[in-house]
Design a protein that fits this description.
By secondary structure, the protein is an alpha+beta fold. It contains five helices and five strands, in the order H-E-E-H-E-E-H-E-H-H. The chain has one domain: Alpha-Beta Complex (Maf protein), CATH 3.90.950. The longest helix has 17 residues.
């Protein structure tokens, strides 16, 4: 997604524990983890602008993370069918040189179709979205599970709020155009 902005970049895995803290709201979890990821990568790149991002889904007051397994993904999609889920995607831009941190949160509401168990099973076997919050990739075959998407930045649902990121980069003196 970042290549959309036509900037040179490197990717790095932050290897952070993504477990929500007790009593933590999904909004705070996403923001905290996006910042934590940026800080973790900054240790290896002390002169860079570091982007961290995280997404948490909320269904009927419960946080939904990455399913990691087929069985968990089946449970998630069964629970979400016919319902509207809020996805909170946070992006942080950390200037490792100056320690300046910017963070933004974007909410996207996704209404899921009332699909059958067989449709869920076929989808999961084809796409295997086990490392995706909410078990569905809107940028792939998961769009067939979705009835409606509401939000300010379509990129946020895919995992990186590019509209917010452009504003952050501009504040750091990085011009996209």
């Amino acid at each position: 997604m970042l290549s959309t902005l036509q900037l040179a970049f490197q990717t790095a895995s932050p290897n952070v524990d993504e477990t929500p803290l007790p009593g933590e709201s999904p909004q705070h979890t996403a923001q905290r983890l996006s910042q934590l990821k940026a800080h973790a990568v900054a240790q290896q790149h002390p002169d860079a602008l570091i982007i961290g991002s995280d997404q948490v889904a909320l269904l009927e007051g419960q946080q939904i993370g990455k399913p990691l397994t087929h069985d968990n993904a089946v449970r998630q999609l069964r629970a979400m069918r016919g319902k509207t889920i809020s996805f909170f995607t946070a992006v942080s831009l950390f200037n490792a040189r100056t320690s300046d941190m910017q963070t933004a949160l974007v909410e996207t509401k996704v209404s899921f179709r009332n699909v059958s168990d067989d449709e869920i099973e076929r989808y999961l076997l084809k796409e295997q979205p086990y490392h995706c919050a909410g078990s569905a990739k809107s940028e792939g075959l998961g769009i067939a599970l979705i009835q409606r998407i509401e939000g300010d930045d379509p990129n946020a649902l895919i995992g990186l709020p590019l509209i917010e990121l452009v504003d952050m980069l501009n504040k750091q003196g990085v011009s996209i155009l």
